[in-house]
Every structure is written in C-alpha cells, then in structure tokens.
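We were asked to recover a plausible sequence for a given structure. The inputs and outputs are reproduced exactly as logged, with field labels preserved.

PROBLEM: sequence recovery
POSITIONS: 229
GIVEN STRUCTURE:
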C-alpha cells in the first residue's frame, strides 16, 4: 500500500467520494519528520496542504526575548494549511515542529483548490474544519483575556481529561501528562513557575496530587469549579 493511501482514513476526507480521494492521493507526498524537526517556519510561503498521519506537531511563535506561545498541537487526522486554500501567498503565521517522530501527507495546493471548486462535498468538509479550528482559537483568546493563569491551568487540565479520559467520571484517576510544565505553560500563555504554583495550589485545595508528569485527580468537581471561575 502506498503511504499516501492513509488519506482516506483521515477525518477531513472520510465519507468523500473514492475517486476524489484517489485523485488527491495521486497529488500527495508522504513525509517523515524526526523529533524537533521543522515542518515549516513562520514567514515561509505554504508549499502544500498538510495532513498529520501519526505523531504530533506543535504550532508556536517565539519572540526575540525567547518567550514561546503555543497556539495548538496537531495529532493524527488533524490538518494545517487551510488559509492557503484561498490565499496561496499568505505566509505561515507560526512555526510547526515535530514533538516526536511524526508522519504527514503533503497535498499539492493546486490540486486541493481545484477539487474544492468542483466538489461540494470537499468544500463543505473544509468549511467544517475551518470552523472547528476558528472556535479553538476563539476559546484560547477568551481564556487569555478573561481568566487568570491558575484558572486557565484548571481549565486546560479539565479539557485534557475530558478528551483523553472521557470515562474517568468523578472517581480518583491517575494520569501521565504528555507535556512538561513548560509546555503546559506555553499553551495557556504563562511561565513554568506559574504552572508549578498552580499545581501546588490545587494540591492544597484537595483537587489533585502531582509528581512531575504523574497527576492523580482527587476531585473532578473541585477541578471543574476552579476551571469556571
């Protein structure tokens, strides 16, 4: 099986006509990235529409002082390059770096644009994905504007639990976070020291116990209450 044949299993392309998916596969390139390797850098003009097959990509910006803001992570099935479908000369606004060994499919932009113009199903699928990503960005702005860092940390943890341990309920649960405190801090717009103090505060309030990346949630109810303050 050709590596790009995984395309039809990805969220954006599921349910689309087989002929359409085959056409896009024939205009695609499979690429492997090592941990720490850049897929692209902020300021570069997009070369392709990208679908993540495995691993994880981090989208971030770093200022001259070295402070990093993480905007999102892309995992299996996620895509990047939606703005390039309508504005092919618009540069990437963030860096994209592999957090682990990753695999992506790069679809030629002209092929994607051509099929969007002639296939309503693909156009609707792209619109739905654009809306999903827009809502995620609005939520990030909302959190940065209206919540203090400790509340943002609680909300981040609650959302991570809901996505990765949906059946945990309110019982005690031990989890291993896939991020360092510095990486969590970058996602919620603060610094590692504030995240450390946030975990200490939640320990004092009986919400959790933390040791490095290992976190035991003691009270999901208290965590939710803190996340909504």
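RECOVERED SEQUENCE:
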């Amino acid at each position: 099986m050709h590596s790009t044949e995984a395309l039809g299993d990805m969220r954006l392309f599921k349910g689309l006509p087989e002929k359409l998916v085959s056409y896009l596969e024939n205009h695609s390139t499979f690429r492997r990235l090592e941990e720490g390797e850049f897929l692209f850098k902020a300021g570069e003009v997009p070369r392709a529409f990208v679908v993540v097959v495995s691993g994880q990509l981090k989208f971030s910006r770093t200022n001259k002082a070295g402070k990093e803001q993480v905007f999102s992570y892309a995992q299996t099935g996620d895509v990047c390059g939606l703005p390039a479908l309508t504005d092919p000369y618009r540069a990437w606004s963030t860096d994209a770096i592999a957090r682990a060994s990753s695999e992506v499919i790069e679809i030629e932009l002209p092929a994607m644009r051509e099929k969007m113009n002639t296939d309503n199903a693909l156009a609707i699928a792209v619109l739905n994905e654009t809306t999903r990503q827009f809502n995620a960005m609005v939520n990030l702005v909302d959190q940065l504007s209206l919540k203090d860092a400790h509340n943002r940390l609680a909300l981040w943890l609650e959302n991570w639990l809901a996505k990765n341990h949906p059946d945990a309920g309110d019982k005690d649960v031990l989890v291993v976070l896939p991020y360092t405190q510095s990486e969590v801090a970058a996602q919620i717009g603060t610094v590692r020291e504030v995240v450390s103090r946030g975990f200490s505060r939640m320990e004092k309030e009986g919400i959790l116990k933390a040791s490095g990346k290992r976190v035991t949630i003691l009270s999901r109810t208290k965590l939710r209450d803190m996340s909504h303050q």
